[in-house]
Amino acid sequence: MSNMFDICKVCFTFGKSNFTNMKSRFLIPRKFRIVGFILFIVGITSFFMVYTAPSYANNIYEINGVAKVAGAYGGCIRAIIMGLLIIGFSKEKVEDEQIAQLRLESLQWSVYINYIILVLCFFLIGGIGLLPVIILNMLTPVVFFIIRFRWKIFQNNRLIKE
Prior knowledge:
The structure is a single chain. The protein is mainly α. It has two domains: 27-91, no CATH class; 94-162. 61% of the residues lie in helices and 6% in strands. It has a two-stranded antiparallel ribbon with strand order 1-2. Strand 1 and strand 2 form a beta hairpin. It is globular and about 50 Å long. The termini are far apart.
């Protein structure tokens, strides 16, 4: 062991502007956010179109005595989920530590709220009525995340302008 303080080195740069962009490995490029919005809008509109004309969409068949619902609802939900994930996890113009912290806090907050709502629904709704809640539960964490994250960015931008 040459020097005990080799582990604890701190480098200072006085007078130099040595700023680097944060490298985030798991974020989608910013240009795909438009694709996410398109997928989300197509998914929502097709979901409501299928919902108003249920004769096509609800092809119910049985496998081993268990009724399974197949049809257009699955495609709509896939488009909605993919669109929300792309919207929620695409990069910002400036991706720095503050944005990363806002992202983390928003994700944590959305998971907490999601599970609080899910536990309340388990206590208040029972039986087969819980199935739509569980299906909706696939979407709510990402929706809560996007709402909270966008709200926090809006608040920060408003504070910066003042």
